[in-house]
């Protein structure tokens, strides 16, 4: 068995690739990773397509996609692979005719996000999914825009080793001040700014933003311009620092934008809440609110103006035993889903 993995970005952008590599390595499968080097950074253990130049503009981006398509189809054809793993909706559409002609019922599509090109190629996208042997998704929220007559396998955005190494129970609400932290890539300026507005200069709360991204300098500028005293920005951090950075956290902010792209996501931060036993703050009418309402390890906010009161009420009525039990119930479900995912991917790589 010989398998190609096709990824449309740099490998450091996709820790979930390791979920597949673990299975392929355990089965001694001959595989090659093809990626798109978008930041001109050489990576090992892969064959990279690198843009001829850092392009901008609609037509230049289209040209780059066509070049990437030619790069992939040429390599995959010449190397005579038996199966292909495709990562992202966008690339499954880009390679649709090639997949349907050469690999019908012999490819896997992994979906971790929505793509804005889907409405323009909906029939093509549905057809390429219908002929896939396996479709893996990272959030049940995606099923609202995916074809409803297909079977999907859940693949959570969480390292299985973390699931096996649950922490012992932590001390909750150790001080009078409620620590509300946001950790990870800071991309959403609007939602984070609203959280700041709801809690700024309130001595009952302290906010910390851990990580970097597009929104970081905007939020820092806001804090400076408005003389906000109960806020701190940590900046970039290493993954192994995560637990220590969150040891005094009382709530993790997972509020997202009120848009179609955000509503179906299941954030990495949600898993951190259950793993590290920290209550989550999520928006209403999102996939994350569905999870919190079902497993009850956080609060669902309808309006940012109610945030202060809801946090204080939650702390005052906190039931530690119930909360820890709810976190564990959610993690048990995640483990079951991940075991099914591994079984299905194992079947995919072994089938002929």
- Unreliable stretches covering 5 or more consecutive residues: none
Q: What strand order characterises the main sheet?
A: 3-2-1-4-5-6-7
Strand content: 15-25%
The strand count comes to 13
Can you name the CATH architecture of the largest domain? 3-Layer(aba) Sandwich
Classify the fold: give the CATH topology of the largest domain.
Answer: Rossmann fold
Shape: globular
Give the count of helical stretches: 14
Q: State the CATH superfamily name of the largest domain.
A: Glycogen Phosphorylase B
Average pLDDT: 93
Terminal CA distance reads 8 Å
Structural class: alpha/beta
> What top-tier CATH class of the largest domain fits best?
Alpha Beta
Q: Biggest sheet, in brief?
A: 7 strands, parallel
The domain tally reads 2
Radius of gyration: 22 Å
Task: State the oligomer.
Answer: single chain
């Amino acid at each position: 068995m010989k398998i190609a993995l096709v990824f449309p970005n740099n490998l450091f952008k996709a820790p979930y690739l390791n979920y597949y590599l673990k299975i392929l390595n355990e089965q001694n499968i001959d595989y090659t990773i093809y990626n798109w080097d978008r930041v001109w950074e050489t990576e090992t253990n892969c064959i990279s397509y690198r843009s001829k130049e850092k392009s901008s503009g609609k037509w230049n981006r289209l040209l780059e996609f066509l070049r990437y398509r030619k790069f992939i189809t040429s390599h995959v054809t010449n190397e005579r692979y038996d199966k292909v793993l495709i990562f992202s909706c966008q690339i499954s559409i880009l390679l649709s005719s090639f997949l349907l002609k050469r690999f019908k019922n012999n490819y896997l599509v992994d979906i971790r996000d929505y793509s804005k090109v889907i409405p323009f190629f909906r029939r093509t996208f549905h057809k390429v999914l219908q002929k896939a042997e396996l479709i893996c998704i990272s959030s049940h929220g995606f099923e609202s825009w995916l074809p409803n007559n297909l079977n999907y396998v859940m693949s959570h955005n969480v390292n299985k080793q973390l699931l096996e190494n649950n922490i012992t129970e932590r001390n909750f609400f150790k001080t009078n001040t409620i620590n509300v932290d946001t950790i990870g890539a800071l991309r959403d300026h609007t939602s984070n700014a609203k959280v700041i507005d709801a809690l700024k200069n309130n001595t009952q709360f302290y906010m910390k933003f851990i990580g970097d991204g597009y929104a970081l300098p905007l939020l820092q500028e806001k804090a400076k311009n408005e003389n906000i005293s109960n806020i701190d920005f940590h900046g970039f951090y290493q993954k192994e620092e995560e637990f220590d950075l969150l040891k005094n956290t009382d709530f993790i902010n997972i509020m997202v934008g009120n848009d179609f792209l955000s509503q179906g996501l299941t954030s990495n931060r949600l898993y951190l809440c259950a793993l590290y036993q920290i209550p989550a703050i999520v928006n209403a009418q999102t996939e994350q609110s569905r999870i919190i309402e079902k497993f009850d390890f956080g609060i669902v906010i309808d309006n940012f103006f109610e945030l202060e009161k809801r946090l204080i009420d939650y702390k005052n009525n906190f039931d530690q035993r119930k909360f820890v039990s709810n976190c564990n119930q959610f993690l048990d479900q995640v483990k079951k889903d991940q075991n099914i995912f591994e079984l299905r991917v194992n079947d995919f790589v072994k089938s002929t």
